């Protein structure tokens, strides 16, 4: 057995699986973290060979080891997000592995199961077909799985498109992720300006957290009094009514511009209203701003 060759092959496979997991879950990470996660994941190969009785090759050991891989490869946002990433990691692994095993059996190659592991035995460098099968079959299976998952996502994103969004306000800018919210029809009844909504992750770049809490409390006027004269001049209180609650006033600001980066060009909405949303728009922080559906009408496509 050539341990270094098997280890290298496993490292490449783990890296591809983690990259596909990141693409499906849109997890926050970097190439360095994914490569580090793949390197840690590949360490199971020498452990399985040199320490076959190690607790890491048991079911509880593999469970904890996979959790460690996810924590290393992706940024921790919440327990729910981490669980989704962990389940997707296993889904991708089983999808690709199942494809390989199915094709292998279809081609009538001998595959043996031993202690829950799929293995083949051969002498010398190994069965040339088996190595060729893995080296060609795994990338092919990976691309097929990625292609199918992208088609599923593309179908879903027809109604839930995510875009990179830049907010310019009083000489400062922040870039975030926005979701087109077809249910958002909030408009200033006086100026008829459309209203975008942003949570604290966006507003923290412009105001302190204590001030934001004041602006979203019942006594909003107290928070407005803490603003500078320039900031106060851009404030608008917009009446709105949420599900299961009485009518309230939302603190909004007239920002300089909101730019939505689309494949067709940059969509610039000048002087829109941006509301302060108290709670996170989503638990996994996938997006931080809700884009008004009329932005395409009010904006200018570059």
- Please report the number of helical segments: 11
- The rough form would be described as elongated
Tally of discrete structural domains: 2
Structural class, judged by helices and strands?
alpha+beta
What is the C-alpha radius of gyration, as a whole number of Å?
A: 26 Å
Main sheet: strand order: 6-7-10-5-11-4-3-8-9-12
Order of helices and strands: HHHHHEEHEEEHHHHEEEEEEHE
Q: Mean pLDDT score, rounded?
A: 77
Largest sheet: 10 strands, mixed
**Span between termini:** 59 Å
Beta-strand proportion = 15-25%
Helical fraction: 40-55%
Spans of 5+ residues with little confidence (pLDDT < 50)? 121-129, 154-159
User: What is the total tally of β strands?
Assistant: 12
In short:
With 302 residues, the protein is α+β, with helices and mostly antiparallel strands. It contains eleven helices and twelve strands. 25% of the residues are buried.
Notes on the protein architecture:
- α1 (3-25) packs across α2 (31-42), α2 (31-42) packs antiparallel against α4 (59-73) and α4 crosses α5.
- Strands 6-7-10-5-11-4-3-8-9-12 form a ten-stranded mixed β-sheet.
- The model is unreliable at 121-129 and 154-159 (pLDDT under 50).
- The protein has two domains: 3-156; 162-301, Beta Barrel (Cathepsin D, subunit A, domain 1).
- It has 302 residues and is an alpha+beta fold.
- It contains eleven helices and twelve strands.
